[in-house]
Structure formats: structure tokens, C-alpha cells
Specification:
159 residues; alpha+beta; 5-stranded antiparallel beta sheet
């Protein structure tokens, strides 16, 4: 009987968490910034800032377009995959499974009220959790530089 109560409590807690509204700054290791611009303009500014800093934009995934393709309405949401092959390639050669988590990503998204945000993984998350997951040596000396670059690029996108 105790197991049944625990299971019901677990299911109720899971349902409550899934029904809870998403807050913009609630995920550990994830940095989210409010944008002053519409989704398309924020995305354009982010891509320009990435390229200006020497990053390669490898791909964009338009989640809302995919949703429209199956007749589901979804606020604008575009995932940008970017990186620096000089930094990422040697790491992926050393630990091929890093490629499941790299290149880095930034998400330009809109909430149901039309507010736009940019979210990305912090450098400490990338070098700690991502590299740690693959038992890859993390280039800790680059963490500060990456943090500054990510912050300035996303600031350029949202301001």
C-alpha cells in the first residue's frame, strides 16, 4: 500500500511540474535573456554577432515551422547550432561522443505572450557537465573567454 501512495504522489508531482508555467530563468546552466526585438530581428542579430566573433553557424532548426507542418501552432522557436571548428574539432577527435552535445546551441524563442528570449548553455555548464559527461578534458582556461564571448554576442542580439 505504501508503494501505491508513493507512486501516486510521484505521478501527481510530475503532472504538477509539467503543468507549471515555464519561467525564463529557471534552468541551471542555462542563461536566458529578454530581447527588445521581434523573433526574426533577434535571430538576425544573433547570427551577425556570432559571425563577427569568428563562430561558424552550422545550422538553424525552425521548430515552429516543423509544428506548422503538422498543423500545430507554436510560438516562434529557432535553434542555432554554432561553434569554432578550431576549438571543437580536436575535442571531438579526442572524444567522438562529444559530437552529440557539440556544437554549441542558442535558442531564440517566443513565449505565448509574444515576448522573445535568447537562451544558451553557460560556459561552466559546457566545460563542466558536457565535457564531464564524455570524460573529456575540459579547456578550463577558455571558460572565461567563452563566457565573455557568449555574453557579448547574446547582448548584441537582444539589445
Amino acid at each position: 500500500m505504501g508503494v501505491d501512495i508513493s507512486r501516486r504522489l510521484g505521478l501527481a508531482l510530475t503532472a504538477a511540474l509539467l503543468a507549471a508555467p515555464v519561467t525564463a530563468h529557471a534552468v541551471e546552466g542555462l542563461i536566458t535573456k529578454d530581447s527588445l526585438h521581434a523573433h526574426a530581428k533577434t535571430l538576425e542579430k544573433l547570427e551577425a554577432a556570432l559571425k563577427e566573433q569568428g563562430f561558424t553557424v552550422f545550422a538553424k532548426i525552425d521548430h515552429s515551422a516543423a509544428a506548422r507542418g503538422i498543423n500545430i501552432g507554436m510560438p516562434a522557436s529557432t535553434l542555432v547550432l554554432f561553434g569554432n571548428p578550431r576549438g571543437g574539432t580536436p575535442a571531438m577527435i579526442s572524444r567522438p561522443t562529444l559530437a552529440i552535445d557539440l556544437p554549441m546551441k542558442a535558442l531564440v524563442w517566443e513565449d505565448e505572450a509574444g515576448k522573445v528570449y535568447v537562451s544558451y548553455n553557460s560556459s561552466s555548464y559546457v566545460f563542466g557537465s558536457v565535457y564531464g559527461r564524455h570524460a573529456a578534458p575540459a579547456p578550463i582556461e577558455q571558460a572565461g573567454n567563452l563566457a565573455n564571448a557568449l555574453s557579448s554576442m547574446t547582448d548584441a542580439a537582444v539589445k
